[in-house]
Amino acid sequence: MKTTCVAFLAFVSVVAVLGCSGEKQQKISLESTRQSAETPPSDAKPVRFAVGGMITPKEGMGYYRDFLRYLQEKIGAKVAYVDREGYAEINEMLKNNQLEAAFVCSGPYVDGHAQFGLELLAAPQAYGATVYYSYIIVPKESPVRSFAELRGKRFAFTDPLSNSGKLVPTYMLARMQETPESFFKEFVFTKSHDKSIKAVAQGIVDGAAVDSLIWEYLNAKSPEFTAKTRILEKSQPYGIPPIVVSNSLAPELKERLRKAVLGAADDLRGQEILRQMKIDRFVEISDSAYDSVREMQAWIAKQQARK
């Protein structure tokens, strides 16, 4: 592919400019110092819970750790935070029973459900809805006024399995009889939506596809970079990134975890953590909420099969 070497070099450039792109967050234990009466002995097997690196900006990761501590106290079992950036690795760990639960994007859920029976636990309701969008963003002063005008430009995707950060823009291109390789001058994978936003704000790339929830979160909390971007296009709504669990998780423990997640909004401490996460509450969600993601995947595969 013509972009392979160029994209790699561009990615190295993005990492250098954005600073923390290549860093791994240190794995930490979530064993709370405030043990409840139900908390098992310290040698009990923990519920290993991954938070994908793209689910929240770096600034919001602490609130997700707080939420996992909260769940630990509510379910009476250890919850171990597992730090992974890539969705492919998280899905592989869920498949191999190296994880019990995870916050993932809608794309990885659809893939995992089809490939190894990945299960929905709950989904966040944010801004009154259980949907989100892919935002195509450009620098605020960019002369570009449509997605088609990004032809021959530099573009940032997030993760290869991300719905909002990869599948949606790839589907948009496929509808134009284009691919990322044929349409863009070069493209990179930044591995997180906040890094993509920074790359656009700093002029490293000419455009990017990002998760609407993360753009809105940063715009409300710390708009230093979002203020330098402009939303060029907004996709149709898609089922919101859910919490998933391995189908090997013990049913009784899974039910305790589900009740704790769904009940967080009815608990004062849970409410405060959710407020910081910019989540109204967690709710039950149907697998059919992700059918539009499947439809995009199927349409792209059909087009590729014809070539």
Total helix count? 11
Order of helices and strands: HEHEHEHEEEEHHEHEHEEEHHEH
CATH class of the largest domain: Alpha Beta
**3D shape:** globular
Structural class: alpha/beta
The CATH homologous superfamily of the largest domain is termed Periplasmic binding protein-like II
Major β-sheet strand ordering: 2-1-3-12-4-13
Number of self-contained structural domains: 2
Span from first to last CA?
A: 16 Å
Mean pLDDT equals 87
Radius of gyration: 19 Å
Summarize the structure.
The protein has 307 residues and is of the alpha/beta class.
Could you please describe the fold and organization of this structure?
With 307 residues, the chain is α/β, with parallel strands linked by helices. The chain has 2 domains: 26-130 and 240-289, Periplasmic binding protein-like II (D-Maltodextrin-Binding Protein, domain 2), CATH 3.40.190; 134-235, D-Maltodextrin-Binding Protein, domain 2 (3-Layer(aba) Sandwich), CATH 3.40.190. It has helices at residues 4-18, 61-75, 87-95, 106-116, 163-175, 180-183, 193-201, 212-221, 251-263, 268-277, 291-306, and strands spanning 47-52, 79-84, 101-103, 119-125, 131-132, 134-139, 154-157, 186-189, 207-211, 229-234, 238-239, 243-245, 281-283. Strands 2-1-3-12-4-13 form a 6-stranded mixed β-sheet. The longest helix has 16 residues, at 291-306. The radius of gyration is 19 Å and the shape is globular. The model is unreliable at 1-43 (pLDDT under 50).
